[in-house]
Write a structure and sequence with these properties.
Rossmann fold; single chain; 255 residues; globular; 7-stranded parallel beta sheet; alpha/beta
Length: 255
Amino acid sequence: MDLKLRNKVVIITGSTGAIGLEICKGFLHEGSMVVPFYRPPLSKLDGLFAWGKENDIEKSRIYPVCVELDSTASLQQGVDEVYSKFNGIDVLVNNAGWTVEKPFLAITDEEWDELIRINLTAVARLSRLVIKIMMERKKGSIINISSTVAQMFGRGVSVYAAAKAAVNRLTEVLALEMGKKGIRVNTVCPGVIHTPMSGPLVDRLSKHIFERTPMQRIGETAEVVPAVLFLASEAMASFITGQHLFVNGGVNLGL
């Protein structure tokens, strides 16, 4: 099925992580122009370029932009560079995220501030900059990668859970404000997915996770991608905004 994402300009943050890499591949498969926002060194994207070469993806369809997500000036510079290169932005995927697993009372002020900056503040700042460009064409799609912990679980990841809950609410408010401008804003909420970040959690709680998940397994990174592509596609999701799409094997059903 044609999602009509060919030649769409797509910014993806957290592009060097496990889920971000798969999202980049997914859009490249659909013929999009992929703009990975990354922190140096550029060699972090070697795997993406190697995959592209193996799959006959034109190198020119991957346009990396070096950005510091916790700097508004850097974000502005990155967005300006994308606009100068492509004269527009069609899709933004706010995928970058990070957590530290500690009891709430053990979290330092510095850790709290950093986690909020990466998981929430950067999402808001980059969205604001990109929305201003999307408004010129009166269309666009923003997909925020949130988490199931925004609504359930969260023990040991209090800051991350709070930030993701805020991202979900921000998504809803932006959808309300931007709907009349033709801009759709949604979230994808993965459950426990096989990634380096979730490794310790899976090792420690896999039995518990299996028992609570109707599908009785952990998710794979590639399983997050179709949800993102679906929400990005005007052909598939033109009347969908302000929604949270869970990709978690049904764990939120509360079995």
